[in-house]
Specification:
2 domains, Alkaline Phosphatase, subunit A, 14 strands, 13 helices, six-stranded mixed beta sheet, alpha/beta, Alpha-Beta Plaits, 395 residues, globular
């Protein structure tokens, strides 16, 4: 196989491609994120099409699909219990989560816990219910502005979210509040993520800012990030990857403002010299469009990404490999505003990769992590099985 020096692993957050067989267990029957955006007039993704997106098992073809795609491709199955960002990324990185993380969609967090939390932060809180992240600002924002009480809310996902206006609760205090919540949410209350949700503006025109911060559980075992780092390779985290893995196994962290900024910074990293993994999360697909049922916006975001993807592909070096995938679904075309239990795409391309190989339906997201390890020549244990032997270009 041709040598590989760098792997760029880009997660299109929530870019699902159709319900998994167990979707009914998650009330996600019929979910198909890609299906909800592909017919929109805003959706134009020639580069994803060229790599083989519409050749993946279960994904209907499109006019203009190549006879031999430039990449190889697969449909990925999630083995972990859940449909959350945290467990999805951990599985991509080789770690299966056999037990689902707790959710509090129907009940909110226990009153006894909320009382202890209020005592710990010195402020009473508002809401403590499952809510849309934008609607909760409209319904509780004015009271928050008057009283200084942070807005605590959750969803169908395993999250404890704290929203606060940046002029009412300064960012550093909000981050401290969320850090306190993370320390307290343990045992049966150990949600996957505590999320700081700062916002600005005046009612009814509140806007969430890019100063969001996620406080994830520590991974319950080693991931490929730990192993690559231990082998002396670079592990560069772009976007919320650092938060998802609690900073473990990361040698450099780059904050991003949005999808476009995330890709701009990834394009800049292409021009740098490093050896190892560049792991990127593009959160807007999920946070800005999927959770708001904005299919047109999701389609526009896919089109914008595809334009930047074209630039990335043109700048790839001979020892680079690019892998595109997702961590779950968030279908903007159904009634729910929560994540959906879906298959995800996997597209892989580079001089070391044979184009046009259909890898079928893989048993786990963790196969991606195992493949990254083999590409970079690092031996170690992961829950997945590398598909590199099936796609490696010989000679």
């Amino acid at each position: 196989m041709k040598p590989v020096k760098r792997v760029f692993l880009i997660v299109l957050d929530s870019f699902g491609i159709g319900e998994m067989p167990d979707a009914a267990l998650y009330q996600d029957e019929g979910s198909n994120t890609l299906g909800s955006i592909r017919s929109r007039q805003e959706f134009r993704v020639p580069n994803l099409q060229r790599l083989g997106l519409f050749c993946i098992d279960g994904v209907p073809g499109m006019p203009g699909d190549p006879v031999v795609p430039a990449g190889s491709f697969a449909r990925m199955t999630e083995r972990s219990r859940g449909k959350d960002t945290t467990v999805g990324h951990w599985e991509i990185a080789g770690l299966i989560s056999p037990v689902g993380q707790p959710v509090f969609e129907k009940t909110g967090f226990p009153r006894e816990f909320i009382s202890r939390f209020e005592s710990a932060i010195g402020r009473r809180v508002l809401c403590n219910r499952a809510y849309s992240g934008t609607q909760v600002l409209l319904d509780y924002g004015p009271e928050h502005m008057r009283t200084g009480r942070p807005i605590v809310y959750t969803s169908a996902d395993s999250v404890f979210q704290v929203a606060a206006h940046e002029d009412v609760i300064p960012l550093e205090e909000l981050y401290k509040i969320c850090g306190t919540a993370r320390e307290m949410l343990c045992g049966e209350l150990a949600v996957g993520r505590v999320i700081a949700r700062p916002f600005v503006g005046e009612y009814p025109h509140y806007t969430r800012t890019s100063n969001r911060r996620d406080y994830a559980l520590e991974p319950h075992g080693d991931t490929i990030l730990d192993q690559l780092c231990a082998a002396g390779l670079d592990v560069i985290a772009v976007g919320k990857i650092h938060d998802i893995f609690s900073g473990r196994g990361i040698t450099r962290w780059i904050h991003t403002e949005d999808n476009t900024d995330g890709m701009e910074k990834t394009l800049s990293l292409q021009q740098e010299e490093f050896a190892g993994l560049c792991f990127v999360n593009l959160v807007d697909f999920d946070m800005v469009y999927g959770h708001r049922n904005d299919a047109a916006g999701y389609a526009r975001a896919a089109t914008q990404f595809d334009c930047q993807l074209g630039e990335f592909l043109a700048n790839m070096k001979p020892q680079d490999v690019l892998i595109l995938t997702a961590d779950h679904g968030c279908d903007p075309g159904n009634a729910s505003i929560s994540h959906s239990r879906e298959y995800t795409p996997m597209l892989i391309v580079g001089d070391a990769i044979t184009p046009g190989t259909n890898l079928g339906t893989r048993d786990s997201f963790a196969d991606i992590g195992a493949t990254v390890m083999e590409l970079l020549g690092v031996e170690g244990a992961t829950a997945g099985e590398s598909f590199l032997p099936l796609v490696a270009r010989r000679g």
